[in-house]
Amino acid sequence: MKKFSSLFIALWVALLGVSAYAAETTPARPPIPAKPAFQAGNAPQIAWQKFLGGKENEHLSAFHALSGGGFILLAYSDPAGDKSLVKNWGVKIDDRGNIVGEKWAAETVDSFFTSIDPSSDGGYLLAGSFLSDYGVDKGSLDIRVAKLNSKGERLWEKFLGGSERDFLLSLSATPDGGALILGEVFSTDGLAEGNASPGDLWLLKLSGGGEVQGQIFLKNQSAYFIDAAKAVMDGDIFKIPADTRYPKGLKAYGQKVAAAARQLCAVLEPHKTDLLIEHLDLVIAPDNRRGYFFSFASWTKNPEKTGGRTLQTWAARLNSEFKPLLQKPLRAGDRYLIWALSPAPDGGFLASGTVSRRGKWIHLEDQPENPHRGIFLKFNQALEPVGYKVPLSQNQGEFFGLLPLPGGKYLVAGEGSPRLEPSRSKVWILGVDASKEGGSSNHNPKPSKEDKSPAGTGPREYKP
Length: 464
Prior knowledge:
The chain is mainly beta. Helices cover 8% and strands 39% of the residues. It has a single domain, classed as 6 Propeller (Neuraminidase), CATH 2.120.10. The protein contains 3 helices and 24 strands. The two termini are 27 Å apart.
């Protein structure tokens, strides 16, 4: 579950000339410092935090901003003792994290939706990869797409795929109430029409009523191509014109996605000796200065352990053609992943993710031994970290989302354990104010009081 960030584009500010970037170009593979100094500075303030969920363990699987304000979150619970029953949970919150509507839906398969996008007609589109007994082919993994109305009532659903395992990668709502679906396919049958080879990318357009309007296959051209294409789609890098015609327009859109993905693969190529393909995390988001911020994680040698390796996170700034202007290793020797990026008002960027080791640079005396902790960081235009926060939950915690709000504020979304229920995983959301930064990056001031309201304690009808 990753790469949920980059779903939204902040307002673009004044463009800078190409000459401003020229002096910042660096070699494709800068050396990794063994013990870089974490820059002192200020981190965004935590305005509030809340844990949402019911009686079981709830896991955040998808989220999206709503055009009228607030957010829609999608989570699932897997009740202990009955792994065949999954409960999907849709919850609508306002900009302060208050629940304004929710709906539970029991499933009879051990699967859950991983993408959600508000539809232009006021409903919602959901998608995921489902191993089911009632899909396209019994026992196969299919792409499942459902459309709900504004009340959370299901209008239609489709199972897409063939007799082999076919995976959902990304979902994007289209202006006509339909959806673009990007999947990775291993079936050579049941894909409507066209010729596909195992491992190809399948881009198809569904109408507002769920009918297939067009499809194309993108040939897998690199070990990183699938992850790169998913990052481009998840980041809403290319807006879909309202008058796009299918399938002709779909081919043009697919060519743009493929071209951008190839450029990201070129950025990754110098790191090929370190990249662990099975756990490649790519995130891309627009830069306010005409370009993109890009982050990826790779395995590299651990300077603190002979023969060992550690997970190294990199950040890069790309120009409008996705070519690197600047890239840096963010930290050597500390395992942390960036799963979401968003441009900051001052030209830098914010990131959220997971720190998965008790690193020396965190300096938290009260950090429990359990290593996984949610983290969000602030970086300047030179890709240097200028502040961070590691808000503590009682047990493990992770942040998958970083969604911008007006006025330099953000919603950070993930999952963790509240202090009142340390043995349970809940949806964990934070309100972050980047316009009022404060507190040294080398300590962890107490956040605002944890919300103790009994939100999400049982099934309720979705009433926006």
